[in-house]
# Entry
Amino acid sequence: MKRNALLLTALWAVASLTLHASEIKGKVSGASGVSVVWVDAIPGKTFPPPEKHVVIDQKGLMFQPHIVAIQQGTTVDFLNSDTVAHNVFWISISGNKKLGHNLGTWPKGEKKAFKFDNPGVAPLLCNVHPEMSAYVVISPTPYFAESDTSGNYKISDVPDGSYTVSAWHEGMKQQSKPAAVKGVVSVDFALTK
Amino acid sequence: MNTGIRTGIVSVVAGVSLTAFLVLMLPQKVDAIPAFSRQYGTSCTTCHTDFPKLNDFGKAFKDAGFKFPKDDETFLKIQPTMLGAPAQKELWPKTVWPGTIPGLPPIGLRMNNFFQVVGKNRGNFDALTPANTISPFIPRTDFETGFFSIFTAGNFGSEIAFWVDDDISVAGDNGNGGLGDGYLKFVNLGRLIKLPKDSLSLRVGQFELDLPFTQARSYDISPYDIYQEANIGAMNSMFAQQNVNNGFAFSNAAKGVELSGGHNYGGYQYSIAFVDQNTSGVDQFANSSPFVPSATGGSNGGVGFASDSNFKDIYGRLAYRFNLEHDKASRNDVQAAGSMGPRDHTSLKLGSYYFYGRSVQRVLGGGATPVIEAREPFYRVGGDFNFNYRTLNIYGLYMYARDHNLLPVDSTGALIPLPLPGTTPLPVGFVKSAPAKFNGGFIQADYLALPWLMAIMRWDRVQSSADQINGIAGLTASSFSAAFDSTRDRFTPGVQFLIHANIKASFEYQYRPRQYVTIVTNAGGLPVPINPFRTNAATVALEFVY
# Structure
């Protein structure tokens, strides 16, 4: 009897969570290519960072991928797959120059790890090959998504609530909108330069 | 506002405005290759610091035959066109060895313009103009059209590299251009006989000699004086004369073959070249025979003959570069691994070079032989250094030149005054005399204050008593006309700005050697120049490549 009660409680909890896990979807327009959309920091809530590392490669004189969205606290492994020397640095995160960093140089096959503890957008550069660039978009919550090249995005498993949702696209002004999330909510962005 | 302060501010604003104006209006001659940028999808600064000055990676790229030193194919954004499947190699010799050509024509173009201000002393030379003639007008300030040039270079696969550059238009005249370098280079040829990697390459065609510091691809506006110096012996009858009329200069393009090996970015490097002898200065296109065809010629004509003797000149160079990084892995790599990113090595390169040739002068003879030849061996020898510490680069070169000197004599054995009159008395032979010599060199310091801003200071020196003596005679057959001193020093400060990675503005001020136009006779009866002056010049260059 006691075991059945526990099982019932667990099932209710799971069902309850499922019922309240909503979805934010929409379209980012105004620019073509991949955009990143995320739910801004939620007061009073913290989220444990994922343990799994994300890899950004330097290959063929390019950062690959060009845009990476991660949760705050995620560690990114910067790999050099080229037979030439590279460097990775960013002068700021979302304009805050105190958060700029230079990872230095390392040879082919090796990687350097960096944990992004501050939310924002880190524009990656290589001081040897000025044409190389990439972006790490650091979301303060685990609720974020990269759009497809047409701008369509979907953030799943968002708890019901009222949030601020932000969208970013390379070369465009970042935009934020309030969103009352319950069920499937549509939030569109029209970004401008 | 205080008048003095106001005046000061006005002066500063005017100075800044003038500087900005000069910066925007000035150019220079350069040879960066935008074609490589297009093919690899990378910036000029991957290979150049202040184009066309190569960084360590650019040197490695060049050494490898205009390829990335490793895994070149992974960097190409435009894939080459195959001239045969690689598997065709297995069929050789029953098929043509498969190669590649660049996927897009690897063409780069360059244009530059100049603005120059010449010192007021420029008008002093009007005094040398013969009576009843008008001197050419030399403006104080002048906007000048420079070079419009085409470059093409790359790799044909099988480690065969090519380079061609040509000035399509010089000074706005489409007829003034000429070929710079045009060659094929068989890189790492030593692999065929199992020599160490990159220990033997072969270059064939027309090329600049493997000089310690390139003139053809210099980033300075004005050339190195010592590279321009030809050995024209003293021909003033008031002094000991020299029958030396050697037009060879290091800045000349050479035609021939070159064996080379090693790397420019570290370790040993050598080259030895066998090139046409041509000290008379006769251009190939102007030297043809109606009776003997040269290449492409039928019964006559053709492209002309480039040599003026059967002897092939020999040029050799040996250098070693010490990369001075503490970390061994970094020391042996193409670029040093700095804490903030890859950078050029802190390094010291020491080198030496030697050129040996035989200058030939043919004159009408007065004896049994209608034409007699003076075969005068000559050599140029010297050493060089190149020190680099982060963004400071100091380098220099010394050269000593010596030409054997055979003086013409008549049938009585008496010396015939020079230059030879062409009539009686005609020489019947030659006697050995004191050799004609000169020496000199340069030291230059480049400081890359910012990635787009480089300050330059150079000191050129040439010591040639013959140039001075020839000037006293009123002759122009000299590398430097009317030199007041046998030692000529030139100081050239400059600054260069990269407006973009492919657009550069350069400024250079030349504090030039003294010259003169007035000669008096001293108590001993010898001519003596007086009233020396300098014709200093400031030049701004604006250059773009694409």
About this structure: Chain A touches chain B at residues 59-62, 82-87, 89, 102, 104-107, 126-131 (CB under 8 Å). Chain A has one helix and 17 strands. Helices of chain A lie at 2-20.
